[in-house]
Design a protein that fits this description.
two-stranded antiparallel ribbon; 221 residues; 4-stranded parallel beta sheet; alpha/beta; globular; 9 helices
Length: 221
C-alpha cells in the first residue's frame, strides 16, 4: 500500500504515518491485497484525500465500510464510479436532495464532483475484502480515520459534519461542537429511511446555509 496522498494531508498526517499501528495496518493491507481480491483498487484507497485537500474541507460525510461488490468502491463513501448502478443508500441520498433542493437526481452515482468542492467523503474503514462486509474493521483503519476527524476539528473552523446513522453519530465526540457544525439523522439505507429516519432531514440545504454563513461558496449537490 503506497500512502501517496495530497501534500496538504501529508503535512497534517505525517506523525500518524510513523506510528506503529499504522505500519502494522500497511502490512496487513498489503498482505490482504496480495492474497485476496480487495476493494477499492490500491490506487483509490486514499482517493477521498486526493480529491479534497485538507485546506479545502468544508463538509465531512462519514461512511462505515467500502462497498464490497465488484466495481463499486472507488475510495469515496457512498459513491460509485460512472456507469455503475447507484446502490440503495445513494438512491435515497439523491431522493432527499431532490425534495430538499428541488433539483433532479443525477444520472450517475459518482460523487467526485462533491469531493472537488470540499466534501470529504470518508469511510471509517478504507478497504474491504471482496464479498465480506466489515472484513478489514478492527485492523487500524478506525484509529486512523478517527485521527483525521480530530485533526480537522482541531485545525479548521466551521466545517459541517454530516453524521448519518448510529455508527457515524458516535464520531460526534471527536468534533469540537463550539467551532464546527454537526448535523445528525438516520442512515439513508432503505431499512432506516423507510422507517422515517432519513427523509426530510434537509441536510443539504442546511449545510449550504451554514457554509454561506461563514462566507464560503455553497456546494452544488
Amino acid at each position: 500500500m503506497n500512502v501517496d496522498i495530497h501534500p496538504s494531508w501529508k503535512a497534517v498526517l505525517a506523525e500518524e504515518f510513523e506510528k506503529a499501528y499504522f505500519k502494522d495496518l500497511v502490512r496487513f493491507v498489503k498482505t490482504e491485497y496480495t492474497q485476496h481480491t480487495c476493494y477499492p483498487k490500491g490506487a483509490d484507497i486514499f482517493k477521498a484525500f486526493d480529491l479534497c485537500s485538507f485546506d479545502e474541507v468544508k463538509v465531512v460525510i462519514l461512511g462505515q465500510d467500502p462497498y464490497h461488490g465488484p466495481g463499486q468502491a472507488h475510495g469515496l463513501c457512498f459513491s460509485v464510479p460512472q456507469g455503475v448502478a447507484a446502490p440503495p443508500s445513494l438512491i435515497n441520498i439523491f431522493k432527499e436532495i431532490e425534495s430538499d433542493l428541488n433539483i433532479a437526481a443525477p444520472n450517475n452515482g459518482n460523487l467526485e464532483r462533491w469531493a472537488s468542492q470540499g466534501v470529504l467523503l470518508l469511510n471509517a474503514t478504507l478497504t474491504v475484502r471482496a464479498g465480506q462486509a466489515g472484513s478489514h474493521q478492527g485492523k487500524g483503519w478506525e484509529q486512523f480515520t478517527d485521527r483525521v476527524i480530530e485533526l480537522i476539528s482541531q485545525h479548521k473552523e466551521n466545517v459541517v459534519f454530516l453524521l448519518w446513522g448510529g455508527f457515524a453519530k458516535k464520531k460526534a465526540s471527536k468534533v469540537d461542537g463550539t467551532k464546527h457544525h454537526i448535523l445528525t439523522s438516520g442512515h439513508p439505507s432503505p431499512l432506516s429511511a423507510n422507517r422515517g429516519y432519513w427523509f426530510g432531514n434537509r441536510h443539504f440545504s442546511k449545510t449550504n446555509a451554514l457554509i454561506e454563513k461563514s462566507n464560503q461558496r455553497p456546494i452544488i449537490w
